[in-house]
Amino acid sequence: MSRIGYHTAASAIMSFQIGMDVTGNNLANVNTNGFKASRPDFADLIYTKRNVDETVHTGHGTKVDKTNLMYEQSTLRETGRGLDFAALDEGLFAIETTAGNVEYTKDGSFYFYQEDGTLRDSNGGYVLDYDGNHVMVPLIDGNIDYDSLGDMIGVYRFENPYGLDQKGLNYFAATPSSGEAISDESIKKKQGYVEASSTNIANEMSKVIEYQRAFQLNTNMVKLHNELEELINNLR
After folding, report:
1. Could you give the CA distance from residue 63 to residue 128 in angstroms, rounded to a whole number?
2. Can you give the pTM of this predicted structure?
């Protein structure tokens, strides 16, 4: 008995499980500032020609070819807080993480660390200026000079932002596909705002239903194939 049907259904089960994982991650970050949702890109596995009719191809399942980053700017949410910033369009803030790496984020909710006078993100990383240096919070008579601070915070862009590697802690890392970061003072910042998550709950829930049904269908196909194989073996 051919096992093509079994392997086709099994590959689909694994692929739709990955799809569910991606969707679950999107939903888990619905309230994460600056989060960019992802979409799995499904691709067919190889086809073979049938001996009887070579114009008819037999498929061998599916796989998740890649996961696409949905990088479009999402809604800006007004906070009225002077240390909150939104980098418009494709702009990103540069952060020197606590591990010493330079990574990038859309989350512009920053904090003043009085111990050393630096501006940091919610993970404790240093916010960088346009030259890659730590932003030192300007003070006037002991109060933060918010206007000057806004000019100091660097904004960066990439030739291909869709090629960025989505890391943990809401960071992006440069890749050969994205190219190197480019500081760009022409990209506007909006103070007193943060960029909301790009997760669309309605779309994600429809994906959950779609993947669940497809997962169940292919699970039933695997069970049916096993039952038929067992029946055939008993008849021998």
Report:
1. 40
2. 0.79
